């Protein structure tokens, strides 16, 4: 099951699990769409993997399987 991290690793923007706008790599590193495109060129700065749209988790699925509260914030690895 996806961890559904709550924020962008580059800019720390909130990324709720039930809203579009999050991009992830195969290791679940999480970024907002803007940072993924403008700062990272669609590649994860941690593993070099492709960043793809994270699926939503909504309703009962979100209630029974809450998103993570573990925030990862590493702006130093996100370029300028």
From TrEMBL:
Source organism superkingdom: Bacteria
Listed name of the protein: DUF1272 domain-containing protein
Record organism: Ketobacter alkanivorans
């Amino acid at each position: 099951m996806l961890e559904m991290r709550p924020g962008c690793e580059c800019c720390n923007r909130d990324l709720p699990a039930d809203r579009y706008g999050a991009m992830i790599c195969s290791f679940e590193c999480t970024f907002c769409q803007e940072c993924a495109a403008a700062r990272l060129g669609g590649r994860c700065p941690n593993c070099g993997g492709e960043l793809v749209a994270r699926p939503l988790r909504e309703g009962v699925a979100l209630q029974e399987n809450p998103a993570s509260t573990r925030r990862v914030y590493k702006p130093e690895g996100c370029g300028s």
